């Protein structure tokens, strides 16, 4: 027996007693491993949910391009619209605000309609498009590019849908 023990220490040979000891240790650790696996499996769904909620994948805007468009929309709104439509209101004509209820009532509740009114004007609001006519309906100031009016219309619609939260230029 001593010879077997000495050999196991020197050559890696495991004797009869060592194998039984290893098997007993493995049997004793199996319930512990099963409990660890069960515990980890119970934690997985809440951890994945927390990761998804807190990850930038789920937050809006979803792309860098949208962030740039929103910032461009803020800038354009500050240049062309804020004089009359501060915070989505209307200091000239109170029933023509940029709030969802007024946009809907006035038939300007889609991006396309907002684009059209911004381009050509309507009522007391001047048009800002490059090809706006008649001249009296159009702004006497700087005209906006078509792409800028599109960004502005998207921005106004987004703000209206969100109830005109505070915007920072």
TrEMBL record:
SUPFAM superfamilies: Cytochrome c (SSF46626). Keywords: Electron transport, Heme, Iron, Metal-binding, Thylakoid, Transport. GO terms for molecular function: electron transfer activity; heme binding; iron ion binding. Residues 68-160 form the Cytochrome c domain. The keyword Thylakoid applies. The keyword Heme applies. It comes from the Eukaryota. Functions as an electron carrier between membrane-bound cytochrome b6-f and photosystem I in oxygenic photosynthesis. Belongs to the cytochrome c family. PetJ subfamily. This is Cytochrome c-553. It comes from Crotalaria pallida (Smooth rattlebox).
